[in-house]
Fold this sequence. Notes:
This protein is α+β, with helices and mostly antiparallel strands. It has helices at residues 3-20, 66-70, 81-94, 103-125; strands at 27-33, 45-50, 55-61.
Amino acid sequence: MDDEVxxxxxxxxxxxxxxxxxxxxxxxxxxxxxxxxxxxxxTLAECEWFLSRRDAIIRVLTPSDxxxxxxxxxxDEECDYDVSLVHELLHLHxxxxxxxxxxxxxxxxxxxxxxxxxxxxxxQAAVKVIDPHVPHVGHYL
Length: 141
């Protein structure tokens, strides 16, 4: 799948999850990025938010660069684009409470919630991961 088709499908997911998470009042600029464009070159997605304006930029790593970062992943869930998108969107709800002091607890909570939400969504939509070692992007990759 080329980056253009990937981005189109990812934008559909963005619209869906913004509605589910009641984040329609946020303007989210979703970008498919190369590894060198990410502020952390070992991650699948990242979010930069501007709380006072209620807008954000979410960068999602292009699948063509996945091999370069997957060696840093500890769990297969970290290669999951759906979970990563939900994770980054949840940061918008937690942004007012974000402190560097509580960074680990903050990330752990968001990780658990995003994995749980995607798991329930997949069960309800009958969207299954066929091979847990292959990056999963819902039904579109």
